[in-house]
Amino acid sequence: MSLGKGTVLVVGAILGLGLLGWAAGWWSFDLDRAAVEAWVARAGPWGPLAIVALMTAAVVASPIPSAPVALASGAAFGHYAGTVYVAVGAETGALVAFLIARGLGRGTVERLLGDKADHGLLGSQNALTLTVFASRLLPFVSFDAMSYAAGVSRLQFWRFALATMAGILPASFVLAHFGSAAMAGTFGGAEWIALGLGLVTGLPLLLLALRRGAASRKDSPRKDTAAAEGS
């Protein structure tokens, strides 16, 4: 459920080229307002339920991407309603993953996540709550892996639910807003500034995380060798 360094770099390169092509006018992401409005009218109450269900599945089943669902939610239902549907779906998925992990137990989760099973979830209840909240604000921390790891930690269920909801609201709004702006054809200066700030702050954190991951992998053989010699 965790992404390797190569995967992260490939995805980052693809996204970077896509944004560059969009900015240069090589292709257009203009959405057909009439088609989207017609879909919303046909879907009725099933439309929001579909968004919530897709977001829930995207969290519980890691290979399903959640960002396109969030963008589609904003395009179909606007900034605020789109944010609500995305947040409800992500929260539901996180709670389901948490309960699944708590029911399966640490052994099964460790086999699924490997050395990511702890995810830094050590300390008091307040420290655990803060760790979950902070992880929801960082795009390079696996949302689903953190949910499963929290399920086998000492963190109380209500604290996990509260920290997750507080942490996912900013990203949910940003993605829904981008989708809504793209649909309305108003993706302009403010959106590019927000995107630029996200890249400026996120890329250094991503590189730091990759560097620490590489360092930990280098240290692991040394620890294994020392343990073998000691035995």
Account of the protein in words:
The protein is mainly α. It has a domain at 30-187. Helices cover 79% and strands 0% of the residues. The protein has ten helices and no strands. Helix 3 (46-60) runs antiparallel to helix 4 (67-77), helix 4 (67-77) runs antiparallel to helix 5 and helix 4 (67-77) crosses helix 9 (157-184). The longest helix is centred in the last third of the chain and has 42 residues, at 189-230. The chain is elongated, with a radius of gyration of 20 Å. Mean pLDDT is 72; it is low at 1-11, 20-31 and 189-193.
Task: Describe this structure in a few short sentences.
With 231 residues, the protein is mostly helical. The protein has helices at 5-24, 33-43, 46-60, 67-77, 79-104, 106-113, 125-137, 143-151, 157-184, 189-230.
Q: Name the poorly predicted regions.
A: 1-11, 20-31, 189-193
Distance between the termini: 33 Å
**Overall 3D form:** elongated
- Protein structure class: mainly alpha
Q: Major β-sheet, in short?
A: none
Report the order of strands and helices.
HHHHHHHHHH
Number of helices: 10
- What is the gyration radius calculated from CA atoms? 20 Å
Number of strands: 0
Helical proportion? over 70%
Average per-residue pLDDT, rounded, comes to: 72
Strand content: under 5%
Organism: Thalassobius vesicularis
Pfam family, one: VTT_dom
Main location: membrane
Subcellular location: Cell membrane
